[in-house]
Amino acid sequence: MHRLRLSLFAFLLAGLGFELLPSAASMQQSRVDPAKGGVGDITGPYEVPDPKWPEWAHPYPKPGYIWGSQGGVFAESPNRIYLANRGELKLPDRVPPNFPGNWGFFNQQAATQPIANMVNCIVVVDGNGKLIEAWNQWDKLFEWGRGPHQVYISPYDPERLVWVVDDMRHVIYKFTHDGKRLVQTLGVLDEFGDNDDLTRFRRPTMIDWLPDGTFFVADGYGNTRVVKFNKDGKPLMKWGTRGTGPGQFNTPHGIAVGGSPPRVFVSDRGNRRIQVFDVNGNFLEEWPGIAPHSMMMSADEHVWAVDSISDRIVKFDLSGHAEYSFGQFGTRPGYTWAMHQISADQDGNLFIAEVFGGRTQKYRPKPGADPTQLVRGRSLMPMAGGTR
Amino acid sequence: MTRIRGAQASGCANDVHAHANQPPPRLRRSAGALAKAEACALLVALSLTLAGVVVSAQQRPNFTGTWKYVSSTPPNYPGSNGWGVPSPTVVVTQTGTELTIESGQFGAASMKVVYKLDGTDTVWDGTSSSQSGSTAVVKWRTKASWDGNRLVLYTWNTALNQMRDIMSLSGGQLTIVRATEQPGPSTNATLTYTKGS
Lengths: 388, 197
Known about the structure:
Chain A contains one helix and 28 strands. By secondary structure, chain A is mostly beta strands.
Protein backbone atom coordinates (compact mmCIF):
# COMPACT_ATOMS: atom_id res chain seq x y z
CA MET A 1 0.00 0.00 0.00
CA HIS A 2 2.82 2.30 1.01
CA ARG A 3 4.58 1.48 -2.23
CA LEU A 4 1.42 2.27 -4.15
CA ARG A 5 1.11 5.58 -2.38
CA LEU A 6 4.71 6.41 -3.20
CA SER A 7 4.23 5.44 -6.78
CA LEU A 8 1.13 7.57 -7.09
CA PHE A 9 2.92 10.42 -5.41
CA ALA A 10 5.85 10.06 -7.77
CA PHE A 11 3.53 9.91 -10.73
CA LEU A 12 1.75 13.06 -9.66
CA LEU A 13 5.04 14.79 -8.98
CA ALA A 14 6.36 13.69 -12.32
CA GLY A 15 3.27 15.11 -13.91
CA LEU A 16 3.69 18.30 -12.00
CA GLY A 17 7.37 18.31 -12.79
CA PHE A 18 6.54 18.47 -16.46
CA GLU A 19 5.03 21.85 -15.79
CA LEU A 20 6.97 22.76 -12.72
CA LEU A 21 10.02 24.27 -14.28
CA PRO A 22 8.34 26.31 -16.96
CA SER A 23 5.80 27.59 -14.45
CA ALA A 24 8.58 28.45 -12.04
CA ALA A 25 10.31 30.32 -14.79
CA SER A 26 7.10 32.00 -15.83
CA MET A 27 6.96 33.60 -12.40
CA GLN A 28 10.03 35.47 -13.49
CA GLN A 29 8.60 37.03 -16.62
CA SER A 30 11.89 37.81 -18.27
CA ARG A 31 13.24 34.35 -17.69
CA VAL A 32 10.73 32.22 -19.53
CA ASP A 33 12.90 29.59 -21.07
CA PRO A 34 11.33 26.17 -20.75
CA ALA A 35 13.83 23.56 -19.71
CA LYS A 36 14.51 20.77 -22.13
CA GLY A 37 14.03 17.27 -20.89
CA GLY A 38 10.92 16.14 -19.12
CA VAL A 39 9.00 13.19 -17.83
CA GLY A 40 10.51 10.00 -19.09
CA ASP A 41 13.92 11.58 -19.35
CA ILE A 42 15.02 9.52 -16.39
CA THR A 43 18.78 9.53 -16.71
CA GLY A 44 19.14 12.42 -19.15
CA PRO A 45 22.39 12.28 -21.07
CA TYR A 46 23.66 9.47 -18.85
CA GLU A 47 23.38 5.73 -18.55
CA VAL A 48 24.02 3.54 -15.54
CA PRO A 49 27.12 1.71 -16.70
CA ASP A 50 27.40 -1.24 -14.40
CA PRO A 51 24.88 -3.92 -15.29
CA LYS A 52 25.64 -5.56 -11.98
CA TRP A 53 24.42 -2.52 -10.19
CA PRO A 54 24.05 -2.12 -7.26
CA GLU A 55 27.26 -3.96 -6.69
CA TRP A 56 29.00 -0.74 -7.57
CA ALA A 57 30.57 0.37 -4.32
CA HIS A 58 28.49 -2.00 -2.24
CA PRO A 59 30.70 -4.85 -1.13
CA TYR A 60 31.59 -3.48 2.29
CA PRO A 61 28.87 -4.10 4.86
CA LYS A 62 29.22 -7.28 6.86
CA PRO A 63 26.81 -10.12 6.14
CA GLY A 64 23.27 -9.35 7.18
CA TYR A 65 23.78 -5.61 6.87
CA ILE A 66 23.42 -3.07 4.12
CA TRP A 67 24.48 0.49 3.65
CA GLY A 68 21.95 2.94 4.95
CA SER A 69 21.40 6.50 3.96
CA GLN A 70 24.02 7.92 1.61
CA GLY A 71 24.58 11.50 2.65
CA GLY A 72 27.24 12.55 0.22
CA VAL A 73 29.62 11.81 -2.60
CA PHE A 74 32.59 13.73 -3.96
CA ALA A 75 34.55 12.68 -7.01
CA GLU A 76 38.05 14.04 -6.65
CA SER A 77 39.04 12.17 -9.81
CA PRO A 78 37.63 9.30 -11.89
CA ASN A 79 39.46 6.91 -9.58
CA ARG A 80 39.15 8.58 -6.22
CA ILE A 81 35.59 9.02 -5.05
CA TYR A 82 34.66 9.84 -1.45
CA LEU A 83 31.43 8.35 -0.15
CA ALA A 84 29.72 9.63 3.00
CA ASN A 85 27.59 6.88 4.49
CA ARG A 86 25.22 7.33 7.36
CA GLY A 87 26.00 3.94 8.81
CA GLU A 88 24.84 0.43 8.08
CA LEU A 89 21.41 -1.08 8.64
CA LYS A 90 20.54 -4.60 9.70
CA LEU A 91 18.66 -6.43 7.00
CA PRO A 92 15.49 -8.34 7.79
CA ASP A 93 16.02 -12.01 8.56
CA ARG A 94 14.43 -12.93 5.27
CA VAL A 95 15.37 -10.93 2.24
CA PRO A 96 13.42 -11.43 -1.01
CA PRO A 97 15.42 -13.09 -3.76
CA ASN A 98 15.00 -10.03 -5.95
CA PHE A 99 16.51 -7.73 -3.32
CA PRO A 100 18.77 -5.43 -5.29
CA GLY A 101 20.98 -4.37 -2.42
CA ASN A 102 19.75 -0.97 -1.34
CA TRP A 103 17.48 -0.10 1.55
CA GLY A 104 15.10 1.90 -0.62
CA PHE A 105 13.84 -1.41 -2.00
CA PHE A 106 11.90 -1.84 1.25
CA ASN A 107 10.09 1.46 0.68
CA GLN A 108 11.44 2.72 3.96
CA GLN A 109 13.48 5.86 4.19
CA ALA A 110 17.05 4.90 4.91
CA ALA A 111 17.79 8.11 6.73
CA THR A 112 16.69 7.37 10.26
CA GLN A 113 15.05 3.98 10.61
CA PRO A 114 16.18 1.66 11.94
CA ILE A 115 19.06 3.00 14.03
CA ALA A 116 22.21 2.59 11.98
CA ASN A 117 25.56 1.19 13.08
CA MET A 118 28.05 3.93 12.43
CA VAL A 119 30.69 1.98 10.53
CA ASN A 120 32.32 2.67 7.17
CA CYS A 121 31.06 6.22 7.37
CA ILE A 122 33.73 7.64 5.07
CA VAL A 123 35.20 5.43 2.40
CA VAL A 124 37.14 6.12 -0.77
CA VAL A 125 36.56 3.98 -3.85
CA ASP A 126 37.96 3.86 -7.35
CA GLY A 127 35.97 4.22 -10.55
CA ASN A 128 34.85 0.62 -10.36
CA GLY A 129 33.64 0.98 -6.82
CA LYS A 130 36.60 -0.91 -5.42
CA LEU A 131 37.53 0.14 -1.93
CA ILE A 132 40.72 2.19 -1.69
CA GLU A 133 40.46 3.55 1.84
CA ALA A 134 38.05 3.14 4.74
CA TRP A 135 38.40 5.85 7.31
CA ASN A 136 37.13 3.65 10.11
CA GLN A 137 39.30 5.50 12.60
CA TRP A 138 36.75 8.31 12.40
CA ASP A 139 33.57 6.24 12.63
CA LYS A 140 33.33 7.05 16.31
CA LEU A 141 32.84 10.71 15.45
CA PHE A 142 29.44 9.87 14.06
CA GLU A 143 28.15 7.55 16.76
CA TRP A 144 25.87 10.03 18.50
CA GLY A 145 24.53 11.47 15.30
CA ARG A 146 23.20 10.14 12.05
CA GLY A 147 26.45 10.09 10.15
CA PRO A 148 28.07 12.44 7.69
CA HIS A 149 25.74 14.80 5.90
CA GLN A 150 27.96 15.64 2.93
CA VAL A 151 31.63 15.51 1.88
CA TYR A 152 33.75 17.92 -0.20
CA ILE A 153 37.14 19.13 -1.26
CA SER A 154 37.50 22.84 -1.96
CA PRO A 155 38.39 23.33 -5.63
CA TYR A 156 40.85 26.01 -4.55
CA ASP A 157 42.81 24.03 -1.96
CA PRO A 158 46.17 22.58 -3.07
CA GLU A 159 46.27 20.42 0.06
CA ARG A 160 42.91 18.92 -0.89
CA LEU A 161 41.70 18.73 2.67
CA VAL A 162 38.49 16.77 3.00
CA TRP A 163 35.54 18.50 4.63
CA VAL A 164 32.72 16.57 6.20
CA VAL A 165 29.54 18.15 7.53
CA ASP A 166 27.84 16.38 10.43
CA ASP A 167 24.47 18.01 10.89
CA MET A 168 23.21 16.08 13.90
CA ARG A 169 26.39 16.66 15.90
CA HIS A 170 26.46 20.30 14.78
CA VAL A 171 30.03 20.36 13.50
CA ILE A 172 32.10 20.48 10.34
CA TYR A 173 35.28 18.42 10.21
CA LYS A 174 38.33 19.09 8.09
CA PHE A 175 40.59 16.07 7.51
CA THR A 176 43.89 15.67 5.75
CA HIS A 177 43.60 14.28 2.25
CA ASP A 178 44.51 10.78 3.40
CA GLY A 179 42.17 10.94 6.37
CA LYS A 180 44.92 10.30 8.86
CA ARG A 181 44.51 13.53 10.73
CA LEU A 182 41.60 15.67 11.82
CA VAL A 183 42.84 19.17 11.11
CA GLN A 184 39.99 21.29 12.38
CA THR A 185 36.52 21.08 13.85
CA LEU A 186 34.17 23.99 13.32
CA GLY A 187 31.35 24.37 15.81
CA VAL A 188 31.07 22.75 19.23
CA LEU A 189 30.48 19.02 19.19
CA ASP A 190 26.90 18.18 20.19
CA GLU A 191 26.07 21.70 21.30
CA PHE A 192 23.74 23.73 19.19
CA GLY A 193 23.54 27.49 19.12
CA ASP A 194 20.88 29.84 17.91
CA ASN A 195 20.91 32.11 14.90
CA ASP A 196 23.09 34.79 16.51
CA ASP A 197 25.70 32.36 17.86
CA LEU A 198 28.88 32.41 15.78
CA THR A 199 30.55 29.68 17.83
CA ARG A 200 27.96 26.97 17.36
CA PHE A 201 25.96 25.68 14.44
CA ARG A 202 22.50 24.21 14.62
CA ARG A 203 22.55 21.37 12.17
CA PRO A 204 24.68 22.78 9.35
CA THR A 205 24.10 21.33 5.91
CA MET A 206 26.50 22.41 3.18
CA ILE A 207 29.61 24.45 2.29
CA ASP A 208 31.06 26.23 -0.73
CA TRP A 209 34.13 28.37 -1.26
CA LEU A 210 35.51 31.48 -2.87
CA PRO A 211 38.87 31.19 -4.62
CA ASP A 212 40.66 32.83 -1.67
CA GLY A 213 39.46 30.13 0.70
CA THR A 214 36.64 32.14 2.23
CA PHE A 215 33.74 29.80 2.70
CA PHE A 216 30.03 29.89 3.35
CA VAL A 217 28.04 27.44 5.44
CA ALA A 218 24.32 26.85 5.09
CA ASP A 219 23.06 26.50 8.69
CA GLY A 220 20.82 24.72 8.31
CA TYR A 221 18.06 22.49 9.60
CA GLY A 222 17.87 24.22 12.99
CA ASN A 223 19.08 27.72 12.25
CA THR A 224 18.03 29.88 9.34
CA ARG A 225 21.17 31.56 8.18
CA VAL A 226 24.34 31.53 6.14
CA VAL A 227 27.64 31.93 8.00
CA LYS A 228 30.68 33.33 6.21
CA PHE A 229 34.15 32.26 7.38
CA ASN A 230 37.65 33.29 6.40
CA LYS A 231 39.99 30.64 5.06
CA ASP A 232 41.17 29.77 8.57
CA GLY A 233 37.70 29.09 9.86
CA LYS A 234 37.16 32.37 11.68
CA PRO A 235 33.52 33.44 11.42
CA LEU A 236 33.20 36.77 9.66
CA MET A 237 29.49 37.39 9.43
CA LYS A 238 26.11 35.76 9.17
CA TRP A 239 22.84 36.61 7.53
CA GLY A 240 19.33 35.30 7.54
CA THR A 241 16.37 34.99 9.85
CA ARG A 242 13.39 32.67 9.90
CA GLY A 243 10.65 33.64 7.51
CA THR A 244 9.56 33.81 3.93
CA GLY A 245 10.76 37.25 2.87
CA PRO A 246 13.90 38.20 1.01
CA GLY A 247 16.92 37.12 3.01
CA GLN A 248 14.82 34.93 5.26
CA PHE A 249 15.02 31.15 5.27
CA ASN A 250 13.27 27.97 6.15
CA THR A 251 15.85 25.18 6.03
CA PRO A 252 18.73 26.58 4.00
CA HIS A 253 19.98 23.21 2.87
CA GLY A 254 22.26 23.82 -0.09
CA ILE A 255 24.76 26.44 -1.13
CA ALA A 256 26.81 27.16 -4.21
CA VAL A 257 29.22 30.01 -4.89
CA GLY A 258 30.32 31.30 -8.26
CA GLY A 259 29.96 33.90 -10.97
CA SER A 260 31.64 37.19 -11.60
CA PRO A 261 31.31 39.07 -9.37
CA PRO A 262 30.84 36.04 -7.14
CA ARG A 263 27.39 35.33 -5.80
CA VAL A 264 26.09 33.00 -3.14
CA PHE A 265 23.21 30.77 -4.23
CA VAL A 266 21.27 29.34 -1.31
CA SER A 267 18.74 26.57 -1.46
CA ASP A 268 15.94 27.79 0.78
CA ARG A 269 14.38 24.37 0.76
CA GLY A 270 11.46 24.92 3.11
CA ASN A 271 10.39 28.00 1.17
CA ARG A 272 10.82 26.18 -2.13
CA ARG A 273 13.16 28.64 -3.75
CA ILE A 274 16.76 29.51 -4.41
CA GLN A 275 17.89 32.85 -3.08
CA VAL A 276 20.84 34.74 -4.53
CA PHE A 277 23.12 37.03 -2.51
CA ASP A 278 26.34 38.90 -2.97
CA VAL A 279 29.26 37.72 -0.85
CA ASN A 280 28.26 40.11 1.93
CA GLY A 281 24.81 38.68 2.28
CA ASN A 282 22.94 41.36 0.37
CA PHE A 283 19.86 39.88 -1.24
CA LEU A 284 19.85 40.05 -5.02
CA GLU A 285 17.01 37.87 -6.27
CA GLU A 286 15.09 34.64 -5.81
CA TRP A 287 14.27 31.76 -8.11
CA PRO A 288 10.99 30.26 -6.97
CA GLY A 289 9.54 26.83 -7.63
CA ILE A 290 12.34 24.50 -6.60
CA ALA A 291 13.37 23.06 -3.24
CA PRO A 292 16.85 21.64 -3.65
CA HIS A 293 18.43 19.24 -1.20
CA SER A 294 21.76 20.23 -2.65
CA MET A 295 23.36 22.40 -5.29
CA MET A 296 26.58 22.37 -7.21
CA MET A 297 28.46 25.06 -9.10
CA SER A 298 29.74 23.49 -12.31
CA ALA A 299 32.92 24.21 -14.22
CA ASP A 300 30.88 26.01 -16.88
CA GLU A 301 29.39 28.29 -14.21
CA HIS A 302 25.92 26.84 -13.90
CA VAL A 303 24.03 25.94 -10.79
CA TRP A 304 22.90 22.32 -10.78
CA ALA A 305 20.16 21.82 -8.22
CA VAL A 306 18.68 18.51 -7.09
CA ASP A 307 15.03 19.10 -6.37
CA SER A 308 13.64 17.42 -3.28
CA ILE A 309 10.08 17.63 -4.62
CA SER A 310 10.37 16.26 -8.12
CA ASP A 311 13.57 14.21 -7.75
CA ARG A 312 14.91 15.96 -10.81
CA ILE A 313 18.30 17.50 -11.48
CA VAL A 314 17.92 20.99 -12.86
CA LYS A 315 20.53 23.08 -14.63
CA PHE A 316 20.24 26.84 -14.13
CA ASP A 317 22.32 29.58 -15.64
CA LEU A 318 23.43 32.19 -13.16
CA SER A 319 20.46 34.38 -14.00
CA GLY A 320 18.03 31.69 -12.95
CA HIS A 321 17.00 30.32 -16.34
CA ALA A 322 16.25 26.62 -16.06
CA GLU A 323 18.04 25.23 -19.08
CA TYR A 324 17.65 21.51 -18.70
CA SER A 325 16.43 18.86 -16.31
CA PHE A 326 16.21 15.11 -15.96
CA GLY A 327 15.54 12.45 -13.36
CA GLN A 328 12.64 10.63 -11.78
CA PHE A 329 11.68 9.23 -8.43
CA GLY A 330 12.17 5.50 -8.00
CA THR A 331 14.32 2.76 -6.58
CA ARG A 332 15.25 0.98 -9.77
CA PRO A 333 18.64 1.60 -11.38
CA GLY A 334 18.91 5.13 -12.69
CA TYR A 335 15.93 6.41 -10.73
CA THR A 336 16.55 8.25 -7.48
CA TRP A 337 14.97 8.72 -4.08
CA ALA A 338 16.07 11.94 -2.43
CA MET A 339 19.29 12.94 -4.15
CA HIS A 340 21.39 14.55 -1.46
CA GLN A 341 24.69 15.38 -3.14
CA ILE A 342 25.95 15.16 -6.70
CA SER A 343 29.48 15.26 -8.00
CA ALA A 344 31.08 14.85 -11.41
CA ASP A 345 34.56 13.64 -12.25
CA GLN A 346 36.85 14.86 -15.02
CA ASP A 347 35.69 12.08 -17.36
CA GLY A 348 32.12 13.28 -17.19
CA ASN A 349 30.81 10.58 -14.88
CA LEU A 350 28.13 11.74 -12.50
CA PHE A 351 27.69 10.37 -8.99
CA ILE A 352 24.47 10.77 -7.06
CA ALA A 353 24.07 9.98 -3.36
CA GLU A 354 20.53 9.20 -2.21
CA VAL A 355 19.57 9.65 1.41
CA PHE A 356 16.32 7.75 1.22
CA GLY A 357 17.19 5.35 -1.55
CA GLY A 358 20.24 4.29 0.44
CA ARG A 359 22.68 4.09 -2.42
CA THR A 360 25.15 6.06 -4.50
CA GLN A 361 24.79 5.56 -8.21
CA LYS A 362 27.32 6.17 -10.92
CA TYR A 363 26.12 7.55 -14.24
CA ARG A 364 28.25 7.53 -17.39
CA PRO A 365 27.67 9.89 -20.34
CA LYS A 366 25.84 8.18 -23.17
CA PRO A 367 27.78 8.01 -26.42
CA GLY A 368 27.16 11.25 -28.27
CA ALA A 369 25.59 12.93 -25.28
CA ASP A 370 24.99 16.66 -25.65
CA PRO A 371 27.88 18.18 -23.68
CA THR A 372 25.69 21.07 -22.54
CA GLN A 373 23.53 18.57 -20.68
CA LEU A 374 26.39 17.03 -18.75
CA VAL A 375 27.26 18.09 -15.23
CA ARG A 376 30.84 19.30 -15.34
CA GLY A 377 32.69 19.24 -12.04
CA ARG A 378 34.92 22.15 -11.18
CA SER A 379 38.62 21.49 -11.65
CA LEU A 380 40.57 21.09 -8.46
CA MET A 381 43.81 22.90 -7.76
CA PRO A 382 46.81 20.68 -8.51
CA MET A 383 47.72 18.93 -5.33
CA ALA A 384 50.83 20.15 -3.59
CA GLY A 385 53.41 17.38 -3.95
CA GLY A 386 51.42 15.58 -6.64
CA THR A 387 48.27 13.51 -6.46
CA ARG A 388 48.04 10.30 -4.54
CA MET B 1 44.89 52.29 44.92
CA THR B 2 42.80 52.03 48.01
CA ARG B 3 43.27 48.30 48.00
CA ILE B 4 47.06 48.66 47.74
CA ARG B 5 47.19 51.10 50.64
CA GLY B 6 45.06 48.76 52.61
CA ALA B 7 47.46 45.94 51.93
CA GLN B 8 50.48 48.02 52.93
CA ALA B 9 48.80 49.05 56.14
CA SER B 10 48.28 45.45 57.02
CA GLY B 11 52.04 44.84 56.97
CA CYS B 12 52.69 43.75 53.44
CA ALA B 13 55.20 46.50 52.60
CA ASN B 14 57.70 46.60 55.47
CA ASP B 15 60.82 44.85 54.39
CA VAL B 16 63.28 46.49 52.02
CA HIS B 17 66.64 44.68 51.95
CA ALA B 18 69.87 46.50 51.17
CA HIS B 19 72.52 44.89 49.00
CA ALA B 20 75.87 45.94 47.54
CA ASN B 21 75.91 47.52 44.08
CA GLN B 22 72.38 48.66 44.49
CA PRO B 23 70.92 52.01 43.42
CA PRO B 24 70.76 54.87 45.92
CA PRO B 25 68.53 54.17 48.95
CA ARG B 26 65.71 56.40 47.83
CA LEU B 27 65.43 54.62 44.51
CA ARG B 28 65.89 51.24 46.13
CA ARG B 29 63.12 51.93 48.54
CA SER B 30 60.95 53.14 45.76
CA ALA B 31 61.51 50.03 43.61
CA GLY B 32 61.09 47.70 46.54
CA ALA B 33 57.94 49.39 47.69
CA LEU B 34 56.55 49.16 44.18
CA ALA B 35 57.29 45.43 44.00
CA LYS B 36 55.70 44.89 47.37
CA ALA B 37 52.68 46.89 46.38
CA GLU B 38 52.31 44.83 43.20
CA ALA B 39 52.57 41.58 45.13
CA CYS B 40 50.01 42.73 47.62
CA ALA B 41 47.70 43.95 44.90
CA LEU B 42 47.95 40.56 43.25
CA LEU B 43 47.19 38.86 46.53
CA VAL B 44 44.20 41.04 47.18
CA ALA B 45 42.92 40.62 43.63
CA LEU B 46 43.27 36.87 43.95
CA SER B 47 41.42 36.92 47.25
CA LEU B 48 38.64 39.01 45.80
CA THR B 49 38.39 36.74 42.76
CA LEU B 50 38.18 33.65 44.94
CA ALA B 51 35.64 35.36 47.13
CA GLY B 52 33.69 36.26 44.01
CA VAL B 53 33.73 32.67 42.85
CA VAL B 54 32.48 31.49 46.23
CA VAL B 55 29.78 34.13 46.30
CA SER B 56 28.82 33.31 42.73
CA ALA B 57 28.58 29.62 43.55
CA GLN B 58 26.54 30.41 46.62
CA GLN B 59 24.20 32.54 44.56
CA ARG B 60 23.53 29.84 42.01
CA PRO B 61 19.93 28.83 42.16
CA ASN B 62 18.69 25.58 43.50
CA PHE B 63 16.02 24.16 41.25
CA THR B 64 14.89 21.50 43.71
CA GLY B 65 11.16 21.11 43.87
CA THR B 66 8.05 19.77 42.26
CA TRP B 67 7.12 22.06 39.42
CA LYS B 68 3.72 22.35 37.79
CA TYR B 69 3.43 23.38 34.18
CA VAL B 70 1.82 26.77 33.64
CA SER B 71 2.24 27.81 30.02
CA SER B 72 4.47 27.92 27.00
CA THR B 73 5.52 30.38 24.35
CA PRO B 74 4.43 29.63 21.69
CA PRO B 75 1.17 28.53 23.26
CA ASN B 76 0.42 24.82 23.36
CA TYR B 77 3.97 23.89 22.42
CA PRO B 78 3.74 20.22 21.48
CA GLY B 79 7.39 19.19 21.61
CA SER B 80 8.58 17.13 18.70
CA ASN B 81 7.25 13.65 17.99
CA GLY B 82 6.91 12.84 21.66
CA TRP B 83 10.26 14.39 22.54
CA GLY B 84 10.49 17.51 24.69
CA VAL B 85 6.76 17.56 25.35
CA PRO B 86 6.11 19.80 28.37
CA SER B 87 5.47 17.49 31.27
CA PRO B 88 2.56 18.49 33.56
CA THR B 89 4.88 17.90 36.49
CA VAL B 90 8.65 18.07 36.67
CA VAL B 91 10.40 16.89 39.82
CA VAL B 92 13.88 18.34 40.25
CA THR B 93 16.40 17.30 42.88
CA GLN B 94 19.62 19.27 43.05
CA THR B 95 22.65 18.46 45.19
CA GLY B 96 26.08 20.02 45.15
CA THR B 97 27.19 17.66 42.43
CA GLU B 98 24.21 16.75 40.33
CA LEU B 99 20.72 17.57 39.26
CA THR B 100 18.06 14.96 38.70
CA ILE B 101 14.93 15.56 36.66
CA GLU B 102 11.95 13.25 36.71
CA SER B 103 9.62 14.12 33.90
CA GLY B 104 7.67 12.87 30.94
CA GLN B 105 9.58 15.16 28.61
CA PHE B 106 12.01 12.42 27.60
CA GLY B 107 9.41 10.30 25.86
CA ALA B 108 6.02 8.86 26.47
CA ALA B 109 6.79 7.54 29.97
CA SER B 110 8.10 9.45 32.95
CA MET B 111 11.83 9.02 33.35
CA LYS B 112 14.55 10.07 35.79
CA VAL B 113 17.58 11.67 34.19
CA VAL B 114 20.76 12.79 35.96
CA TYR B 115 22.99 15.72 35.02
CA LYS B 116 26.39 16.10 36.67
CA LEU B 117 27.09 19.69 37.60
CA ASP B 118 30.83 19.46 37.03
CA GLY B 119 30.31 19.51 33.27
CA THR B 120 31.15 15.87 32.66
CA ASP B 121 28.97 13.50 30.70
CA THR B 122 26.62 10.93 32.15
CA VAL B 123 26.07 8.01 29.80
CA TRP B 124 23.75 5.03 30.19
CA ASP B 125 21.74 2.51 28.22
CA GLY B 126 17.99 2.93 28.27
CA THR B 127 14.90 2.82 26.18
CA SER B 128 13.68 5.56 23.95
CA SER B 129 9.94 5.65 23.51
CA SER B 130 7.78 7.88 21.45
CA GLN B 131 4.14 8.81 21.59
CA SER B 132 3.58 6.48 18.71
CA GLY B 133 4.51 3.68 21.06
CA SER B 134 7.66 2.45 19.38
CA THR B 135 10.57 1.75 21.71
CA ALA B 136 14.22 0.85 21.28
CA VAL B 137 17.21 0.33 23.54
CA VAL B 138 19.57 3.19 22.92
CA LYS B 139 22.42 5.05 24.56
CA TRP B 140 21.61 8.18 26.50
CA ARG B 141 23.91 11.01 27.47
CA THR B 142 23.53 14.20 29.48
CA LYS B 143 25.69 17.19 30.24
CA ALA B 144 25.21 20.33 32.32
CA SER B 145 27.01 23.65 32.54
CA TRP B 146 26.37 26.92 34.31
CA ASP B 147 25.95 30.12 32.37
CA GLY B 148 25.81 32.62 35.19
CA ASN B 149 22.66 31.81 37.09
CA ARG B 150 21.24 29.78 34.25
CA LEU B 151 21.79 26.08 34.02
CA VAL B 152 22.25 24.69 30.51
CA LEU B 153 21.24 21.05 30.19
CA TYR B 154 21.85 18.87 27.17
CA THR B 155 20.15 15.51 26.69
CA TRP B 156 20.98 13.26 23.76
CA ASN B 157 20.22 9.72 22.77
CA THR B 158 21.24 7.60 19.84
CA ALA B 159 17.68 7.49 18.58
CA LEU B 160 18.58 10.99 17.35
CA ASN B 161 16.67 12.90 20.00
CA GLN B 162 18.40 16.02 21.28
CA MET B 163 17.24 18.60 23.78
CA ARG B 164 18.78 21.74 25.20
CA ASP B 165 17.08 23.20 28.26
CA ILE B 166 18.22 26.50 29.72
CA MET B 167 16.79 26.68 33.24
CA SER B 168 16.42 29.77 35.39
CA LEU B 169 14.47 30.85 38.44
CA SER B 170 12.68 34.15 38.82
CA GLY B 171 9.84 35.28 41.02
CA GLY B 172 9.21 31.77 42.24
CA GLN B 173 8.81 30.47 38.73
CA LEU B 174 10.97 28.05 36.82
CA THR B 175 11.60 29.02 33.23
CA ILE B 176 12.92 26.50 30.73
CA VAL B 177 14.02 27.72 27.34
CA ARG B 178 13.80 24.54 25.33
CA ALA B 179 15.26 23.68 21.94
CA THR B 180 14.91 20.24 20.40
CA GLU B 181 16.55 18.59 17.47
CA GLN B 182 15.56 15.43 15.64
CA PRO B 183 15.94 14.49 12.00
CA GLY B 184 12.64 16.30 11.50
CA PRO B 185 11.90 19.94 12.22
CA SER B 186 13.62 21.81 15.05
CA THR B 187 11.50 23.26 17.83
CA ASN B 188 11.93 26.17 20.24
CA ALA B 189 9.80 27.15 23.20
CA THR B 190 9.86 28.87 26.55
CA LEU B 191 8.13 26.87 29.26
CA THR B 192 6.98 28.26 32.59
CA TYR B 193 6.50 26.21 35.73
CA THR B 194 5.39 27.15 39.21
CA LYS B 195 6.12 25.41 42.49
CA GLY B 196 3.56 22.77 43.33
CA SER B 197 3.29 19.74 45.50
